[in-house]
Amino acid sequence: MGTLIFTATVSLDGYVSDQNGDFQWTGPSDDMFALHVDRMGEVSTEVLGRKTYALMEYWEKLPDTEDQPAPEREFARRWRDINKVVVSSTMTDNELASGRARIVPQLSLAELQQIVKDAEGMVEIFGPTTAADAIRAGLVDEFRLVVVPKLVGGGLRALPGDVQLDLRLAEQRVFANGTVYLRYLAGRG
Fold first, then answer.
1. What start-end ranges are recorded for coiled-coil regions in this protein (predicted)?
2. 58 phi and psi, to 5 degrees?
3. CB-CB contact of 114 with 9 (8 Å)
4. Tell me, what CATH number does 110's domain have?
5. What's the Cα-to-Cα distance from 181 to each of 58, 162, 177, rounded to whole Å?
6. 158, exposed or middle or buried, with CB in 10 Å at 0-12, 13-18, 19+?
7. Which residues of the chain have pLDDT under 50?
8. What is the pTM of this model?
9. Which phi and psi angles does 10 have, rounded to 5°?
C-alpha cells in the first residue's frame, strides 16, 4: 500500500501562482532541484491535472544526452519511470506523451484511495485543484511544501481555505536563497 503525499512550491503567503497565473518565481536553485530529483526517486505514481501534465511533458521529451545537465537527465529518467494518472474530462489518450499515463475524467475519493492502495510507494497528488478534495477528506498522509521567500498577494492558493488539520513537522531544510523545505505528517487520531 502506498502513501499519499501532496507537494507544492508556494509563496510565503501560500500561493502556487500569482494573480496573473505566473509561477516563474518558483524555479528551483540547483540545491532545490537536487531535492526534487531525490523526491522523484520515492514516487511510484503521480496524480495530476491536465495543465500540470502538459507542463511536465517537458520531462517526457528531454533527450538523455550528455549535453543535458546530469541532474535534469536524472529527473527526466525518474519522471518517465513513474505511473501517471491525469485527471481531465477534456483530454484524449492520443494526447498522452507516455505509455505510463492514463486519463480519468473525474477523480473520486474512492478511486484515489484505490490508486494509493495499489501503489508500491509514494503516490504524489500534484496541483492544488486536483488535490483539494483529498486534502479536505483527510486522505493526504504527508504535505511537502517548498516555501519561496516571496509575497505574491493573491492567485491560486496551495491549500484549500476551508480545511483544518493537525500536522507534525517531520523534516525541514533551509536553502542558501532563503527557500525552506517543510515536510509535515498528517495527524491521525
1. none
2. -50, -40
3. no
4. 3.40.430.10
5. 24, 23, 12
6. buried
7. 189
8. 0.92
9. -130, 155
Q: What is the pairing mode between strands 101-104 and 83-87? A: parallel
CA-CA-CA-CA dihedral for 65, 66, 72, 76, to nearest 10: 20
Beta bridge partners of 18: none
Q: Which position has the grid cell 497528488?
A: 125
Can you name the residues that pair with 125 across neighbouring β-strands? 6, 47
Q: Report which of 134, 137, 61, 135 is spatially closest to residue 98, judged by C-alpha positions.
A: 61
Burial of 10 (0-12, 13-18, 19+ CB in 10 A): buried
Q: Containing domain of residue 41, as a range?
A: 3-186
Contacts of 10 (CB under 8 A, 6+ apart): 16, 145, 146, 147, 148, 158
How far is residue 11 from each of residues 16, 126, 143, 156, measured CA to CA in Å?
Answer: 6, 16, 15, 10
Total domains present in the chain: 1
Tens of pLDDT, residue by residue over 160-187, are 999 999 999 999 999 999 999 999 999 7
